[in-house]
Structure formats: structure tokens, C-alpha cells
Write a structure and sequence with these properties.
about 35% helix, 15 strands, nine-stranded mixed β-sheet, alpha/beta, two-stranded antiparallel ribbon, about 15% strand
């Protein structure tokens, strides 16, 4: 809903989402007409930060040090979010220089025996020492727009709703909540494949700072799913002393459009002229990867990777005076692990706060700040290297470099990132290399990469390989589910590549793969079948897919109510294993069948059952798939 009003003669619009508690519901509910209504202005600030987690607390400190009158708002009653109330008090990975280094020193100075308590206190004390305000128990529920400029936020407080006006707004909700309600394009669970990264809720152990969990999927912007996640955690952790107040979701709604950082930026070690932070991780993805590069790449094990985070990935496309930090910034889902490590979240948030204060002080738009001025400060505190002030955006791949990369692809996919960075230029060279290859393994490598790039040149080679008995297949890369290696087994990835060729020789191979599925099939195998069918949806696949959904163990995992979806074991489904081993398999099969025609209505019944499932991630995906067209 968008309503208009005036404050001191200035026309403002109030933007709120009034579709109810379910984040995926677009139908709306019954309403009560209020007529003319007014919201009180609760305060005016230079910078308002919505979300007092690791990013938001750091952003508030950055803005305050830049001289901006700053308010940070959080629905909890402590700061730090996941790093404190979510029990992720120690770092898994991340770059610990820059502002994070100061945070760590500050925590030690508090002399708290429990580190996460020290983090809470240092954030609070530093914000207050700098003159900042903190509002606890207040939830952001809307955006205030002046034309295309975000002029503040709407908050719900214990004494009612009100408006906070600000010259600059920083969205550190982790789900791009302000950006989404202001009309920015965002992305989360939809009709594309269900590949959400997993989440959990940690037990709170006395004296403990770090407990990590991973047992379900969370639809963060759904109030009922958030509540049910806590209920399930309590049933599953009945023997624990207490449970964390903040769940550890690893992927959330994020900006799209504008500039998106991708896994290729990591693989190619790309530099940016507006870099503000330096992400560091071992590609801790907690779920299947979807980028093309992750289907065919060299086996690299659990190496540590780096991502240079550009300032422009925090900037929305349509609205001004708004920055989006934390997990809501513009990053491809497979790049999320490089922006979600707590040290990196803190550094990005701090840079956002500094940028907002600089924008106010210099009276320029956020997109027009003197980026070198900001970078000089960040370089001084060790957040980015001094050399970054001379970096450019150029991703130059010469013809010679590309030719070398194409040659190296035959060596267990080495240099594949270069090829995937410029597919239009690479495909003719790959075709020529495929035609000239005499080594069967090299020929298969080229056929595989071409297939992933949706080129049919090597379809016959892929079909021949996949038709062989398992022991007779060529083994090029036995890497499985590793960083930037194959996101599935070689056979599964080659099946996806064959489907993308749309060649007639793929039909019997895909049909055989469907028929081989049963209750023992891994999620990655079912996913490969679904992706192959999605690439070339054919009516011929429908009977086999319908039969697979009827097999014991592959179907029937949707739940009809809260009690059924929240078994006594809490963390587990009735089958004694985590639900992520069952429900996504069924959704993959139903989606593939739906796209291939669903002549018997099996997919429709399955998807409709999940559309009513109280687990919101499944319901959101099922509803979105039902809105897709299918093969007729």
C-alpha cells in the first residue's frame, strides 16, 4: 500500500506491505478502511540504520564518526544480531582486518568472559559514546518516499506506528526489507529451481559464544515461518538450556539489477575501482550452487577465496538516499558466502555508514560521493589495500589469454572461469578444440563445457559417455560438492549439460536417468534430472516423472498443518533424517513434471499440497511454479 501525506509542506508517500504475515502471499487479506489517517513523526536524523546486527551496529558507528546524527533501530533488545543473539560469536572465515580488527580489540577491552556479551556491550557503548541513539523493541515496517528518494522509514513500536525521517537510510535488515517495500527489484525463493541455502537455530549453552546449526530452510521475510522455526527448534532442542533468539539463515532476499557480484568475480580475482571491503571464505555454501561455472570447473578442494566488494553493489536502482548492506546487497546467491561472513559483514556495514555520513556532509547523492575519499579512510584502517585506490573495473581477457584458457579446459577444466566469463567469444574456440581433440577425456571436457553453455556441438559425446555402464565411464574429475568444483557428481553435471544441448540423443538418456531414481537417490541426482528436463521440457518425460513421484520415499512429504510440520523431534522429519533430504527432491520432481506437461495431474496435486504447507520456503516455491506455463 502507498499512501500520501505532507510534512512541513513536503509531499511524502508511505509504502507498506499489507498482504499479511506470509511473505509469499500476493492475494491480500480483508481490510478495514481507516479513511484519512496520520502517522506521528517520531524523529529526524541525518542517518537512520534499520537493523542493529553486525552490519547495522558497524554502520551506525561509521556514520557517527563521520559526524552524522544517527539512529539505529532493532526489534530485539540487544545489538549484534546473529553474532550475539544467534550464537555465532566466533568467526568461521572472513577478513579480520579493517574495522573488524577494531571491534575485536574493543571486545577484549570489555573484559567480558563470554565474548558475545562483550560484543553486545562494545557496540552499545561505542554508539552511545559517539552520541548515537538506539531504539530497541521497534520493527521497521515501511518506507517513506519523497518522489524516488527514501526519506525515512515507518516503524512499529510498543506505543504504535510512526515515521522516522532521515536524509540517508541504511538497510541492514539482511533481507533488503526497506528496498523491497520501496519498490526495488529483489530476489529470493521463486519459480526457478529450489536451491536455498540451509539455516538453523542454535542452542544457548551457559558460558558459550559459538554454536552453529544447519537443519532446515527459513523464509526470513515470513512472520509465521519465523515463529514456526523457533517452535521446531524448541521441540528439537528440548534438552538444551535455552535457544538462540536469532536463527542462522545463510541466504536471504537481496537486491537485483544494478551491479551484481558473482562467483566469477571471485574465480577471476576481479578488482573494482570502488572496492570498499574484502570478503574471505572457503566457499561455505550450505546448499547446491547454480552458476554455470559451478557445474564445470577445476577441482580446487577447500581453498580460501577472496572477493573484492564494490560500493555500487550496495546501491539500489530506482531509489535514492538508500544503501543496502548485510546479506541484502546485490550479490549472486553463489557469491553470498563471500559477503555473509561476520568479519566481512562488519566491514561492509562500516563502509556503508561512512559513505552515508560523507554523502550528508558533502550534500551529494550516495551514488556521487567522492569514492577515493572513502577509500583513503578504509585503506588507512587496513580494510582495503592502498593499491585499491588505483584499481580499475577492466576485466580484460585478450584473444591470446582466451585461447590459452580454452586449451587448458582439457586439463581437468583448468582455466574454465576465463571461458565462462566471455562465453560468446569462447564458444567458437571450444567448438574448434572439440573437433580437433583426439584424447577422449579432452573431447569429453569440451563437450561438457559446451553443453553447460547450451551449445549442442558435443551432444553425441555426452550421450555416449552417459549411456556407458558406470565402471566404463571416463573419469575426468571425481571432485564432488567442493568450492568451485562440480556442484554435483560428474555424471550428474554431464546430464545437465546434455539436457542443455536440446539434442534428440538426450531424450533416451534423460528418460533412463528418471527411471533409475528411487528413495535412495541423492538430492543432487534428482536435481540433475530436474535441470535436464527444465532445459528441454518434453512430453516424453512426463510418464517417467509421474511414476517417480509415486515411488515410496520420493513423494508424500508435504505437511498439512503446523503439528504435522513440527514433529516431536523438531529438527527431523518423521523419517529420521533432515527434511532437506526429502522435500526438495519431491519439489524438484514435481517442478520437472509440471514443465513437461503433467498429463496425469500428479505434479499439480504435489505442488498444491506444498502451496498449503506451513513451511514457507516450500510454499513460496510451489506457488511460483504453479504460475509457470508448461509443455503442451
Amino acid at each position: 500500500r502507498r499512501t500520501g501525506g505532507n510534512v512541513a509542506g513536503t509531499a511524502l508517500n508511505i509504502c507498506e506491505r499489507l498482504n499479511g504475515l506470509h511473505g509469499y502471499d500476493e492475494t491480500g487479506l480483508e481490510t478495514v478502511a481507516l479513511g484519512a489517517a496520520a502517522l506521528p513523526v517520531l524523529g529526524r536524523y541525518d542517518v537512520v540504520v534499520l537493523g542493529g546486527g553486525s552490519a547495522g551496529s558497524a554502520a551506525a558507528i561509521g556514520a557517527l564518526r563521520g559526524g552524522a546524527k544517527t539512529l539505529v533501530v532493532d526489534y530485539m533488545y540487544n545489538l549484534g544480531g546473529l553474532s550475539t543473539l544467534g550464537m555465532i560469536g566466533y568467526y568461521w572465515y572472513g577478513f579480520t582486518g579493517g574495522f573488524t580488527k577494531e571491534i575485536d580489540a574493543g571486545i577484549r577491552s570489555t573484559e567480558y568472559l563470554v565474548q558475545r556479551r562483550g560484543r553486545i556491550e562494545w557496540f552499545r557503548a561505542e554508539i552511545r559514546r559517539l552520541g548515537g541513539e538506539i531504539w530497541f523493541g521497534a520493527m521497521g515496517c515501511g518506507a517513506v518516499l519523497k518522489g524516488d528518494t527514501v526519506a525515512g522509514i515507518v516503524v512499529a513500536t510498543p506505543t504504535g506506528r510512526g515515521v522516522i525521517l532521515a536524509k540517508r537510510t541504511i538497510d541492514t535488515t539482511g533481507s533488503a526489507d526497506v528496498a523491497a517495500v520501496a519498490g526495488e527489484a529483489t530476489e529470493f525463493v521463486g519459480s526457478s529451481e529450489f536451491a536455498l541455502q540451509t539455516s538453523g537455530t542454535a542452542p544457548v549453552l551457559p558460558g558459550c559464544t559459538y554454536v552453529n546449526t544447519d537443519w532446515s530452510y527459513l523464509f526470513d521475510n515470513d512472520a509465521i515461518d519465523y515463529w514456526m522455526n523457533g517452535l521446531r527448534a524448541r521441540r528439537g532442542g528440548w534438552h538444551d538450556w535455552d535457544l538462540a533468539q536469532v536463527p542462522s539463515s545463510r541466504e536471504r532476499r537481496h537486491l537485483v539489477g544494478g551491479f551484481t557480484v558473482t562467483p566469477l568475480d571471485v574465480a577471476l580475482k576481479r578488482t573494482f575501482k570502488d572496492v570498499i571491503a574484502h570478503g574471505r571464505t572457503d566457499f561455505d555454501t550450505h546448499g547446491p550452487t547454480v552458476a554455470d561455472i559451478c557445474f564445470a570447473s577445476e577441482p580446487v578442494g577447500r581453498n580460501v577465496y577472496h572477493l573484492n566488494v564494490p560500493y555500487r553493489s550496495l546501491l539500489p536502482v530506482k531509489t535514492r538516499a538508500l544503501l543496502v548492506a548485510s546479506l541484502g546487497l546485490n550479490a549472486h546467491r553463489d557469491a553470498q558466502p563471500f559477503v555473509r561472513m561476520i568479519p566481512d559483514v562488519q566491514n561492509i556495514g562500516y563502509a556503508a555508514g561512512c559513505a552515508a555520513a560523507q554523502s550528508v556532509k558533502d550534500n551529494v547523492a550516495l551514488a556521487d560521493i567522492d569514492i577515493r575519499k572513502l577509500q583513503r579512510h578504509l585503506a588507512e584502517i587496513g580494510q582495503i589495500p592502498e593499491a585499491a585506490l588505483t584499481w580499475s573495473d577492466e576485466l580484460t581477457i585478450t584473444d591470446e589469454r582466451l585461447a590459452e584458457a580454452v586449451k587448458n579446459v582439457a586439463k581437468k577444466y583448468h582455466d574454465a572461469p576465463v571461458v565462462f566469463a566471455v562465453p560468446t567469444r569462447a564458444i567458437p574456440l571450444l567448438r574448434a578444440a572439440y573437433a580437433a581433440a583426439t584424447d577422449p577425456k579432452a573431447k569429453l571436457c569440451y563437450a561438457h563445457v559446451l553443453g553447460i553453455l547450451r551449445d549442442p556441438t558435443g551432444a553425441s559425446t555426452l550421450a555416449e559417455q552417459l549411456a556407458k555402464p558406470a565402471k566404463a565411464r571416463l573419469v575426468i574429475n571425481d571432485q564432488n560438492k567442493e568450492a568451485f568444483g562440480l556442484s554435483m557428481t560428474p555424471f550428474e553435471s554431464q546430464l545437465v549439460a546434455l539436457g542443455r544441448t536440446k539434442s534428440a540423443c538426450a531424450v533416451p538418456v534423460i528418460r533412463a536417468a528418471i527411471e533409475n531414481l528411487d528413495a535412495t537417490s541423492k538430492l543432487s541426482a534428482v536435481r540433475a534430472v530436474m535441470l535436464a528436463c527444465e532445459a528441454m521440457p518434453r512430453k516424453e518425460f512426463a510418464p517417467a516423472l509421474a511414476a517417480a513421484l509415486r515411488k515410496p520415499g520420493l513423494g508424500g512429504h508435504a505437511r498439512a498443518g503446523l503439528a504435522a510440520a513440527t514433529p516431536r523431534s523438531g529438527f527431523c522429519d518423521y523419517y529420521g533424517a533432515r527434511e532437506e533430504d526429502f522435500c526438495p527432491r519431491e519439489l524438484h520432481l514435481a517442478r520437472a513434471l509440471w514443465l513437461c506437461g503433467d498429463s496425469e495431474g500428479v505434479a499439480k496435486r504435489t505442488l498444491e499440497a506444498y502451496a498449503q504447507d506451513p513451511r514457507a520456503a516450500y510454499a513460496a516455491h510451489a506457488r511460483a511454479v504453479l504460475n509457470l506455463g508448461f509443455c503442451r
